[in-house]
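Case study 2.
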Amino acid sequence: MSYDINSPRLDAVGAVLPLPAFKVFVREANLAQEIGEDHNECIKAGWAAVKENWQRPKVGKKWVAKEAPAQEDKAFASVCKVDDGLGLVFGWAIVCGENGEDYYDTQGDHIPEQSMLEAAADFMENSRVAKDMHDGEAVGSVVFAFPMTTEIAKSLGIDTAKTGLLIAMKPSPDILAKFKSGEYSGFSIGGSRIEDEDVA
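Prediction:
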């Protein structure tokens, strides 16, 4: 029997690994099985592969990417359109879900729709600042933001594969040029996670 992320025998593994890490675990366990390894060796192969890029967290149960900062998380999302006339860059600042499934960023983190909604409301009310790669002074501002949750999309009759936060940023001319040239192809949202909460 091959290993699968929906298999009850891997529930304990799935409880502590973010989905991208869990998929790596399952892939390597199946590869080990294909060459005739027993169950214990398959499990060892899965964990060995996971440990290359993920590690146990200091707080909470879910493992985190090794390159992830200890306190500050950065989620990357793609740019959809650059409007040269208005000097605006449009795109997803946060992606919460895709094709009906939770979306995990390159660090293995998932931002639930409600958390995104609360963070977006606070950001638009109190900040709206855009920086260049999180450093230095402001190089622009976020002038539009729209939270596209499953419930909001349904209430507006919008059929969308993605949910999350849509924004329009008005950067300085030099930063706009980087978006136009393709040097910058996404938004990076910095924030601090106050605590991890395990929900039974």
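The longest helix spans residues 19-34.
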